[in-house]
């Protein structure tokens, strides 16, 4: 009897062991036969979502490494949200000013061309951009046919881009057809013709171009302008010439379609995080070397910048006192100072910030304090995939064009230094009536920051109120362009004026004319 009972138990034990082995085998088989998608397929799948996916709209815009729910963004719902909007994001009133770039009734089609104007632009993207628009006006003044300008390939950035790589060439030519005749290349019969090379005098007016420069047509068919930056006066030019400058800059000179396409995508990806600040953080090696600003840098870094300045022949000033520069407000704010500034203005730590800049000098070591205050620091390198950026990555001016687009479209634009990009973006946003543009009062801020370092002041409500009061009238609202500083003479007088493209009012912003239909929004 006992033996009969043991037989079924033994069979049961064997069946359990067999079942366990079978289940383990199935599990092992399923793991080994799982199909792993290729990296290419995975990237493609990451951008596709099912209709039930609540984050579908974000995933369609985001590259693979951002295709997940965005980090918490500022909430603007409810009464508290409305207060935040009024305080932090609300655009300043345009006070009834609208773009007015239409020619006056006396404006005529281009007169018969007397010759050809070749232009060698100089500087970075925004310096070249302003120079191109000025040369359109110069070509009109001297009755020249403008040859598509040659971009600067020998500046600090060593960018090999041609005009059509950055700008929409056909649109530029067609938009200005009623103003100036523009051709892509000099006619073959004139390629080897004798030409005069001139460096036009900075901030020159009508008399200089109508008399001294136009008289060159008596001997030459081709005039070559060796530089393009600041060659035309900011003020005291005929209204039609000023309006032509605006049509050239804000309507005709668009970026190339491929740059606009990616720029628009970057804007949409920033928008997925909520209202955002575009911070032009001018803390790059070239800026610090040129300005001689070394605050918060190590002795090694200061020496490196000094050597760069010494070795670049066309930077005329070699010996610079960094302490004096900073006390005069002539240095860019450091990333640390920008963080204190934004906190004092009231922007919460969840604020999305787009860093519109090249490579930050010192890299992450100088960004730590800003990032600790504002973790959501984004850039084109973070918003776009490697594949998307690859066509532009070795071209500084094309990368700067992407930053320009995101900056123009931002809810708030803040430059840490009033350089060429800061001025051109500020002017473009004023023209479009686009959002807040906060211009830091660097001279006043430096004194406050020094008091913080000395322990005389502490961060808090008192500092915040002082900084807010300093910037109530620095939010980008329409105002008349500033003239020269009293007491300045000669070139210093022109240099002290507010740049035309930083503020095109009153010439191109009026209270009497509705905006033209064809205004380009860059994107």
TrEMBL record:
Pfam families: O-FucT (PF10250)
Keywords per UniProt: Carbohydrate metabolism, Fucose metabolism, Glycoprotein, Glycosyltransferase, Membrane, Signal-anchor, Transferase, Transmembrane, Transmembrane helix
MF (Gene Ontology): glycosyltransferase activity
Annotated GO CC locations: cytoplasm; membrane
GO biological process: fucose metabolic process
Bilayer disposition of the protein: Single-pass type II membrane protein
Chief subcellular location: membrane
InterPro entries reported in the protein's UniProt record: FucosylTrfase_pln (IPR024709), GDP-Fuc_O-FucTrfase (IPR019378)
Pathway in which the depicted protein is active: Glycan metabolism
Protein family per UniProt: Belongs to the glycosyltransferase GT106 family.
PANTHER family assigned: O-FUCOSYLTRANSFERASE 7, OS02G0726500 PROTEIN-RELATED
Name of the protein in its database record: O-fucosyltransferase family protein
Species assigned in the record: Psophocarpus tetragonolobus
């Amino acid at each position: 009897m006992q033996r009969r009972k043991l037989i079924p138990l033994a069979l049961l034990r064997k069946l359990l062991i067999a079942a366990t082995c079978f289940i383990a085998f199935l599990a092992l088989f399923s793991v080994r036969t799982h199909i792993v998608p290729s990296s290419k397929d995975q990237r493609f799948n990451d951008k596709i979502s099912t209709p039930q996916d609540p984050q579908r709209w974000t995933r369609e815009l985001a590259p693979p490494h951002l295709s997940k729910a965005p980090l918490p963004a500022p909430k603007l719902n409810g009464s508290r949200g409305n207060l935040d909007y009024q305080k932090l994001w609300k655009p300043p009133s345009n006070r009834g000013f609208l773009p007015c770039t239409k020619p006056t009734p006396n404006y005529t089609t281009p007169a018969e061309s007397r010759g050809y104007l070749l232009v060698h632009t100089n500087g970075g993207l925004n310096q070249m951009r302003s120079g191109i628009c000025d040369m359109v006006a110069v070509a009109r003044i001297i009755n020249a046919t403008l040859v598509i300008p040659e971009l600067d390939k020998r500046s600090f950035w060593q960018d090999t881009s041609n005009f059509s790589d950055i700008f929409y060439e056909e649109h530029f030519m067609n938009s200005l057809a009623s103003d100036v005749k523009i051709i892509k290349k000099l006619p073959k019969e004139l390629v080897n013709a004798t030409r005069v090379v001139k460096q036009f005098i900075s901030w020159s007016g009508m008399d200089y171009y109508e008399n001294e420069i136009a008289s060159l047509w008596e001997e030459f068919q081709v005039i070559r302008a060796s530089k393009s930056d600041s060659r035309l006066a900011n003020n005291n030019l005929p209204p039609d010439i000023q309006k032509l400058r605006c049509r050239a800059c804000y309507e005709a000179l668009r970026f190339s379609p491929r740059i606009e396409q990616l720029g628009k995508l970057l804007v949409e990806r920033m928008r997925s995080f909520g209202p955002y600040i575009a911070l032009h953080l001018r803390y790059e090696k070239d800026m610090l070397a040129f300005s001689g600003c070394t605050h918060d840098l190590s002795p090694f870094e200061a020496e490196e910048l000094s050597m760069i300045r010494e070795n670049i022949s066309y930077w005329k000033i070699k010996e610079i006192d960094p302490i004096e520069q900073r006390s005069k407000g002539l240095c860019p704010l450091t990333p640390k100072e920008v963080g204190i500034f934004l906190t004092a203005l009231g922007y919460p730590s969840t604020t999305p910030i787009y860093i519109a800049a090249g490579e930050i000098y010192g890299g992450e070591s100088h960004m730590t304090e800003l990032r600790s205050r504002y973790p959501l620091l984004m850039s084109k390198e973070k918003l776009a995939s490697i594949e998307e950026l690859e066509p532009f990555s070795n071209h500084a001016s094309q990368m700067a064009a992407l930053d320009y687009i995101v900056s123009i479209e931002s809810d708030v634009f803040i430059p840490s230094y009033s350089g060429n990009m800061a001025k051109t973006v500020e002017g473009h946003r004023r023209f479009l009536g686009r959002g807040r543009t906060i211009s830091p009062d660097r001279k006043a801020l430096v004194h406050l920051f020094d008091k913080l370092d000395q322990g005389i002041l502490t961060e808090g409500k008192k500092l915040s109120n002082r900084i807010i009061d300093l910037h109530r009238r620095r939010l980008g609202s329409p105002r008349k362009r500033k003239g020269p500083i009293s007491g300045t003479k000669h070139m210093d007088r022109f240099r002290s004026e507010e740049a035309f493209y930083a503020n095109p009012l009153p010439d191109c912003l009026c209270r009497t004319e509705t905006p033209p239909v064809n205004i380009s929004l860059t994107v």
